[in-house]
Hints:
Strand content: 35-45%
Radius of gyration: 14 Å
Largest sheet: 5 strands, mixed
Structural class: alpha+beta
Number of helices: 2
Amino acid sequence: MSTTGFGxxxxxxxxxxxxxxxxxxxxxxxxxSHGEIDLIVKDGRIIVFVEVKARRNRRYGEPIEAVTIxxxxxxxxxxxxxxxxHHLTEASxxxxxxxxxxxxxxxxxxxxxxxxxx
Length: 118
């Protein structure tokens, strides 16, 4: 499976998990000149910008560790553009990270970190 296909699979698992928690998809793979947001969902009245980190193992640390300050800044910038373009500048927002571990024996482990950064 290609890296892109693997990442897309991780996003699919994350979205399924979030929808089972009662959240609804607003947008997927939203891009700006400075970054991309994997999933944008609505959790009640809160708009949630979700970074999905899919991994096969923890060789390079926990998946959330890849969401650096630099990456967070790009996500926030892209979120502001999304909110502005959709006339949602007064909305309550949150930034979450969903880790998806896809272990070779077909085991899927998901960890959802709400309010992962501000």
